[in-house]
Amino acid sequence: MPTGQPKSPSSRTLAREDVPDHNYIPTSDAAASGSKDQQTPSGAFKRKKKNLYGGPRFLLVPGYEVGTDYVMPSPRSQAFVPGDDNFLASGTREESNDEHLKDGESLEWQAETPSRRVGYEDMTAIDWIFEYSKERQRLQVLRHNATGILGYIREILDSSQVWIVLLLTGVAAGCLAAVIDVASDWLGDIKLGYCASGEDGGHFYLNKYFCCLGFDGLSQCRDWISWETALGVTTGNTSWLTAYFIFTISSILCAVTASFLVQEYALYAKHSGIPEIKTVLGGFVIRKFMGFWTLVIKSLGLCFAVASGMWLGKEGPLVHVACCCANTFMKLYGNINENEARKREILSAAAAAGISAAFGSPIGGVLFSLEQLSYYFPDKTMWQSFVCAMAAAVALQAFDPLRSGKIVLYQVTYSSGWHGFELIPFAILGIFGGLYGGLFIRLNMKIAGIKKVATWLPSPIAQVSIVALLTALVNFPNAYMRLQSSELLYYLFAECSKVAHDPFDLCKIGSATGGTVFLLIIAALLGLLLASITFGLQIPAGIILPSMAIGALFGRAVGILMEIWVDAHPGYILFSTCEPDIACVTPGTYAVIGAAAALGGVTRMTVSIVVIMFELTGALSYVLPIMIAVMLSKWVGDAFGKRGIYESWIHFNDYPLLDNSEETYVPDIPVREIMTRIEYLVVLTATGHTIDSLSNILATYPYRGFPVISNAKNALLLGYVSRTELAFNLQTSRQKPRYLPPDTEVFFSHQPQADPQTTLDLRPWMDQTPLTISSRSSLQLTVTYFQKLGLRYVLFCEKGELQGLLTKKDAWLVLNGAEESRNTVQDHRLKATARSPRDGQPIEERSLLSYDTHSPLIPLSPESSAF
User: Fold this and answer.
1) pLDDT by residue (tens digit) across 27-47?
2) How far is the C-alpha of 483 from the C-alpha of 493, rounded, in Å?
């Protein structure tokens, strides 16, 4: 069809806000015919034919209330069922427990927010402005009705709901962390033997730590029975091979069990969950990611995953567990559960509780949430995070899983300080941390990229079993790698003067020291390789503890070398500050600093790592060396790339997060050269529509929303209507009790002469105050709006007339596209490429906008993947 030839004054052609990812069968006869040359529906005209892929996913509400001139949604919504032939004629569907609602109030829409909403679809962005406006409106009504003593009590109860959720979340996170600690330690130790203390071996449930509590070393502990001893195999190599075999089989069984639980019952329980949490806190909706079943499988699978001995940690997954707890408790209070902005504030606090329970570091948890996760972190969220993290730490301390008063096993204290000459090796450890972080991220993402496109790889469970087999074969011969990560850190962090038993000769200086250093370095290198392969498997797995272990292994090796040097040359002027008869160098502190540097290199965090390490060691004097090491690790790591491991996985998974703290290069070009201009938009006019014509438009164009203008000649912007709200109203208007005919007039502007009983007024469902800026603005300013305000789309106007549109996902694809999907700025042109499907997910189209003014739109191929 020639550009510029309208067929109707009701709409124009347009680029989508977003394209859903389920195939849709239209309701109109013309659309249902399946003809490639289908005619433009009545009430719309096209200026340029475009390739469309995928179809809409609707949220159909099974109940509603009727007002005088509009239809109001019921308080629950549900997802569109793929394969439904007629979305307007769909009947009542099963209600979903994971719906994200937007409006359940019966207030007049003119009170503050000028629109009603149905619900958020999966994999879409929330409307921050609407959510906060809805909360302000709710509080206004509450205060207006709060008269007398009862009103005052209602206000107090309403304000206390958040704190009840926070305290419950903190306590639950602390208790679950303790249970996971005990269970994973027992499962990990059962690979080596069992506890036979008590009558007839009645203490089988005890792990090695509690079984041998009170004995000076494992050699003197007669209650712990190794499997080779229990089987009567006590001779040399045969005994060692028997232990090796049982260790390997047990590791594989634990890993496969964890992967099976994830694959069969809750796929969202895989990985650490932090990239997804960060995306959710940025305003993205991922349904069932924080559901109760995900909580159960994540907790259970984490016990087996940690016990498998694979190079993974539980600290990141515990953040996911805490957020799942918060999401579960928020369902107790509708006014919290139905406001997506308030939910994200509480989830930020829950993330702090997860780190607090993992490390016993409440302040570090608050800073972790602030520095790494939170997209929007107001002062009240800081206070809420503090309370939630404190509750988690108190619950964990009260549970006391180690029966020693320590919250975590590798919590240590140091009695000696550091000397000026040690700043040089501390700086070396910082540089090592940055190199490790850069190498790990590149290696891990390279492996993930291969798995994404390779068709010859086995099933996810088979991949986990193969990696578990490889890990067990490598771990067992090396005494350091055979230990659980937390136990390994305990020995590496320990101060030699306080160690009663040294099973790994870490505190001995002599001829055997060279072999110890060699084993430590080999363990660090093998740990780097195994962690790179493990992180990203279909199994609950974090990267925080493995990174700390790798850094601690290397740091302890450096500390031992420094100790040998000082002991060999005590008269050097460099060591003149050392006191006689007192250890000048403490190798354990090098392990702590190495662990902090490695963690900083892989995550690019700074302040929160320093505080966490300080809370672990309690040594204020070592804060400065840790700060220096972390600073250097970040600088060196940034030389490889600005993204940490979590940002890299967000980027890899194509989550549309425009991080307002990320240093993203934004091309210095006018936004009009990248926006979708009005001649390529599908817009709706204020009048001239019927229920049938709008149904045909929805059946023809799979866009998530449509700008509304006054008329075809004068494109004065009136607002923006979402596809979800439009589809909901068209459906409910033809059902009981209204039963409006298909030719019913529909309008988006005030019509004083219209009969509300025989017409359909969609003004309450239209966003009448969308954020608009001048089309002469820069792309940098537009991106700032997306980052700071959490917008889903921006409309561009001149003197009130619509000029174009840019969506958040289009902006993200321009700035942060992955290797196969990003737009790069080359020769002053923005070019689009397609993404390939992954993990069997449905495909969908994404629009990318070129810089060429003669070819404003480059549609992607149908192979582009869904989020």
Assistant:
1) 333 333 344 344 444 444 343
2) 14
